[in-house]
Design brief:
heterodimer, A: 303 residues, alpha+beta, Alpha-Beta Plaits, 2 domains, four-stranded antiparallel beta sheet, 11 helices, B: 226 residues, alpha/beta, Rossmann fold, six-stranded mixed beta sheet, 7 helices, 10 strands, 32% helix, globular, binds adenosine-5'-diphosphate, binds magnesium ion
């Protein structure tokens, strides 16, 4: 068993070298396929991270009338905190709101003038509510339509982050679909190229194969070098894809981070999940190639 | 050992290579199959080791009906039949020893056994000292002896040779035929396909003559008549 495996591997490696250009071309196509799949993956990760980043910063500002007392405010805060959807509630008191307004418009005489003319504090208190998930805001906002609190609230401002998220998704979606299409196309080409490579391999080795058949080699033995070769191609392509992707990620990550104004942790993601990502891609590719190889052998190996 | 009952072989779409051939070859026999070119000799030889399957009829090898042999059983059959065929020459990039060893490697033999068998069969064909030569460093006759050595690695009960002397001069032909006789003396059934008149006449063994796909004569100690 072991000796048969050793011999089959030896033949597989010999096949690889015997027409090394064909082998290299095959590996290159496999590599292109993997790269396009990985670009797609990068895109998914970046989109995910960007959306998470935006989502973490989504909040609802609830503005109260000036007349609302601190006790009333506290009761709303405690009510909100009982909601499981609410992550955090920050209180901005009327005084804080005024101070903040004044610092924001420092040097703007006209505005400060009109504030003075108003006399007193025109601001009410504000609550800044954060949710665990963007989808929960609708619920939180409707919860505030509570008859007890309704009349204290002047305005609820749900900054329209959903639009930002939608626009991120819309802009990446198009690229993503293109990526899916391209990867699919590459996978198809991969299968065809591998089919052809095996066909060539069978042609180049027809004398050996003829002798093998004649002296009673099992079909399994005749087939295994071609299957092993398909695995070898997949393995080389996966290793090369990893080796190429790493420096590319290092280059790209700062630019992506700058664009989204956040830390995507792209490289770290790929390193931490490398085993799954590349292991999965290797298995996918090896499986596809073995299927293509089997088809080629069925067609051209008369065994 | 070999029994053919009413076999016909029709190649796609309608080339009749063999018509209703019946013959019986005893264990240890030496049989020559002769006939003009294109009469179905090679086809008959191919049927014996299941390279082709008969369109009609039954072929039994040692009592085993191989007319409808499934692909997975073919290796088992092939390890009992030594085959020398014009299409299957030596691999030019392997030495004589490696060429012979190849036949054992691909059928899963252990290295220790290969190391024993290779010198043995090379000695049988008289090339014990040529193991490290490459095929192009050998004469045509020597090359053919290596091919025969390779066919002997499994100690076959039947030996089928299709025109083994086709490209050889008289002297080399003589040597190959002597070798086949020696193999036959060890008890192996030999089926020799040839159209060489001198060979057949010198052998004084059984001759089966085929013409247009049919057996037209089958005589003990026959002579080439066509
Ligand atoms: N694979 C094949 N497909 C179609 N026709 C074939 C094939 N092999 C042989 N033939 C035909 O069958 C006939 C017998 O061929 P063959 O057995 O090779 O004869 P021989 O060996 O006596 O010269 C010939 O007419 C040949 O053209
Ligand atoms: Mg012939």
């Amino acid at each position: 068993m072991f000796i048969a495996f050793y011999r089959a591997s030896k033949f597989a490696v010999q096949n690889f070298w015997r027409n090394v250009w064909l082998s290299l071309m095959t590996v290159s196509i496999l590599l292109l396929t993997l790269l396009s799949i990985n670009v797609l993956l990068v895109l998914n990760v970046v989109t995910d991270r960007a959306i998470t980043y935006v989502e973490q910063r989504v909040d609802v500002s609830v503005y109260f009338y000036e007349t609302v007392t601190e006790d009333q405010l506290t009761s709303v805060v405690s009510y909100l905190r009982t909601l499981t959807q609410v992550k955090d509630v920050q209180v901005v008191t009327a005084q804080e709101a005024l101070a903040r307004f004044q610092t924001q418009h420092e040097g703007d005489e006209e505005i400060l003038q009109s504030l003075n003319e108003y006399g007193g504090n025109p601001f009410g208190s504000t609550l800044v509510v954060q949710a665990y998930h963007v989808d929960d805001f609708d619920f939180i906002i409707s919860a505030l339509d509570h008859p007890d609190y309704e009349e204290w609230i002047r305005e609820k401002d749900f900054s329209n982050y959903q639009d930002i998220i939608n626009s991120i998704e819309a802009s990446t979606d198009r690229v993503r679909w293109f990526g899916y299409g391209l990867s699919g196309l590459f996978l198809l080409i991969t299968a065809l190229i591998v089919f052809n490579t095996v066909r060539m391999g069978i042609f180049i080795h027809r004398e050996e194969i003829g002798i093998m058949r004649l002296v009673g080699a099992s079909s399994w033995f005749i087939r295994s070098p071609f299957l092993l070769e398909a695995i070898l191609y997949s393995f080389l392509a996966t290793v090369l894809a990893g080796a190429l992707l790493y420096p590319i990620l290092l280059q790209v990550e700062p630019k992506v981070d700058a664009y989204f104004g956040s830390v995507t942790g792209l490289t770290v993601y790929f390193i931490q999940n490398g085993l799954w990502i590349f292991g999965g891609q290797f298995l996918l590719l090896a499986l596809l190639n073995m299927i293509a190889t089997t088809f080629a052998m069925r067609r051209y190996l008369k065994i | 050992m070999i029994r053919c009952k009413n076999i016909s072989k029709i190649y796609h779409p309608d080339i009749v290579a063999l018509k209703n051939v019946s013959l019986h070859i005893q264990p240890g026999e030496f049989v020559s199959i002769v006939g003009q070119s294109g009469t179905g000799k090679t086809t008959l030889a191919k049927l014996l080791f299941a390279e082709e399957r008969p369109t009609k009829g039954v072929i039994e090898i040692g009592g085993w009906d191989i007319s409808k042999i499934p692909n997975r059983d073919i290796p088992v059959l092939r390890r009992q039949i030594g085959v020398v065929f014009q299409d299957f020459k030596l691999l030019p990039k392997k030495t004589v020893g490696e060429n012979v060893a190849f036949a054992l490697e691909v059928s899963g033999e252990r290295p220790k056994r290969i190391a024993e068998v290779v010198p043995q069969v090379l000695r049988i064909v008289g090339l014990g000292d040529r193991a490290h030569r490459y095929p192009h460093q050998l004469s045509g006759g020597e090359q053919q002896r290596v091919v025969i050595a390779r066919a002997l690695v499994h100690r076959p009960k039947i030996f089928v040779a299709d025109e083994p002397t086709g490209n050889l001069d008289t002297l080399n032909t003589r040597e190959i035929i002597d070798l086949l006789l020696r193999i036959n003396e060890f008890g192996t059934t030999v089926v020799l396909v040839t159209h060489n008149r001198e060979v057949v006449n010198a052998l004084k063994k059984r001759v089966i003559t085929i013409d247009h796909g049919e057996v037209v004569s089958d005589v003990e100690e026959g002579r080439y008549r066509i």
